[in-house]
Design goal:
Number of helices: 6
Shape: globular
Strand content: under 5%
Oligomer: single chain
Helix content: 55-70%
Largest sheet: none
Order of helices and strands: HHHHHH
Number of strands: 0
Length: 132
């Protein structure tokens, strides 16, 4: 269990939260880029979205390193949670742009649940046509 500075109890259905955020993101497609940050990302296109995901991933890694060096630092913990939220959000914008949804990712996680990580990695690294 995490001893994070966030609420002790997550929302009743985390997937519901992700789906609501995904709906908001979808609703911004075709929106006015001068009035919506998400509409602006859609307007700027794939490269801008993916660059933003990369930036957020880097910021998350740096925040994680900060927390690893000071595990009892509540500010570092809060910063990491914030960077993870930014990364998830921008990944969801990119997913929506590419026709994917949180359900797609959750279904893949469910498929992998209970599998050995080493076996799953080996399966994914086999040459095409040899997976059984």
């Amino acid at each position: 269990m995490s001893n994070s500075a966030s609420p002790a109890t997550p929302p009743a259905d985390t997937l519901d939260v992700l789906l609501r955020v995904a709906q908001v993101i979808e609703s911004r497609k075709g929106g006015d880029p001068d009035k919506s940050y998400v509409a602006r990302l859609f307007h700027k296109g794939t490269d801008t979205m993916l660059k933003k995901v990369g930036e957020e991933a880097t910021e998350m890694v740096l925040a994680a390193k900060d927390l690893a060096h000071a595990p009892s630092d509540d500010a570092a913990r809060k910063a990491l949670v914030g960077e993870l939220a930014d990364l998830w959000f921008h990944s969801m914008v990119a997913m929506a742009h590419l026709g994917l949804s949180p359900e797609d990712v959750v279904a893949e996680l469910a498929r992998r649940e209970g599998l050995s990580g080493l076996e799953e990695f080996a399966r994914r690294t086999q040459p095409a046509g040899t997976q059984g």
